[in-house]
């Protein structure tokens, strides 16, 4: 079941530097995730958590810092620190509407950066980022070219704001029409199956002069729920 695409609709429902080589992405062995049982209580808890994370992302300009707080609050790693792991490879083409969204001409250079944002062994988000280098400082461009520092931390001196274009729940723990069902299953030994990506945000970042300088598409993974559900803790 898909949600309404607009972030405003979501906000009504409920008030994402060390340098690593590309090969390390494949060497990363995720820790076994705690078991979420496929029962009504776990499904309701998972939905509430996804809506809470979505609301946090919508209400703060930096997805990186939001994920760092989320990691710390849910003890996903010994240290709540987000590391951006660069994904090297072919650049994705700029989306057709992006030049209008970034308010740039047909010949304005745009750079592409893809990263995985990880906290400990958990990859929480995969982000595609198209940005206008002429609207960043020389130091920022150098840092983006030569390090794995998260984009949001690099451009923090711009005191940027974030305009959400869409916020979409890619997976709902509750089946469609659950509210009309006589009852949900109360208990089962089965494990709740989760897809790789559970939430997607599209946003444009603006500097203090209200100039757009970045288009981001962030795909949040089910690893954001890689902790023991509260209802099943001893």
UniProtKB/TrEMBL annotation:
Signal peptide span: 1-27
InterPro entries named among the record's database cross-references: Chorismate_lyase_/UTRA_dom_sf (IPR028978)
Assigned keywords, A-Z: Signal
Domain of life the protein comes from: Bacteria
Protein name: Chorismate lyase
Organism annotation: Dyella kyungheensis
